[in-house]
Amino acid sequence: MPPPRFPERNGFFRMGRIRNFSELMAAAKQARECRPPMRVAVCAAEDASAITAMETAARLGLARPVLIGEKRRILGIMRETGADPALFVIADVGGEDEKAEKGVRMIRQGEADILMKGMVPTSTFLHPIFRKENGLSEGFFISHCGVLHVPGFDRLIIQTDGGINIAPDIEMKKGIIVNSVFVARKLLNIDRPKVALLSASEKVHVKIQSTVDARKLAEWAKDAIPEADVEGPLALDLAVSGEAAKRKGVTGTVAGAADILVSPNIEMGNVIYKALRHFANASGAGIVVGAGCPIILTSRSDPPEEKINALALAVLYAGHIKEAGYRITKIGKRP
User: b/e map of 111-120 (b: 16 or more CB within 10 Å)?
Assistant: First the structure.
């Protein structure tokens, strides 16, 4: 079922909090009723998972896929999967670097709306995006937000940053928090997100820099992000388990009820996301926030469902991207 819709004064409708990917897709379908399908440039599209996902998206009216890659190989995959070539535009490009460059160029020239990673390493895909000349960073802070639906939880959980910022300093962490709160409020309709700043302990230890940073960031957020509750440091169990918080005597608004898990470095963020996906059978999606267009940064091992979920996030994000850039550029710095 789609989330409830509440009437607003201007005659449009605001959807209630999005708690699972079915509701997210319903929101994306509603959003696309107001505009044409998004043109999605898939860099290195020689990938059965990406082609299957984009075919589904095209049939749903969410996307007009542009597949960037070696045409011969792409058509071969289409024959194997039974995909209809008539649903796609194919840009015949060879070489990993060239495929990533072509995607960014299409965005810059107004030929595509959304950029998506295919069968290309993340570093190769991101390189032209961050290039100072003709890139897509445009001076804004950029980070990755993973969105997960974990069996047994009644809500979607945002995990950040497991894809872009390797060892963020405290200023970069501010940008990561701002981006994640934006995703929670504007894309998932969470009125007041609960943000957990993760570490190995809930106590501040001078030898564990992430605990020191978390305490400072929690204080900073009280004035900087009044629309969210930001607390830390918190260990993962205390962030998501009310029972664990009760047993350890940890109180607060966020403990046991976190909507957003902020990791201190890319290793923790990446492992949490993939562990939940592969050990806990969570379903997921991911979106890059702060660039000049929505960017879908999925793993090459991700199934088609995860790529479709990510596209739904990107469709919703497209309607807010100018607002996001204005807010995000005020805090943090480029990675």
Answer: ebbbbbbbbb
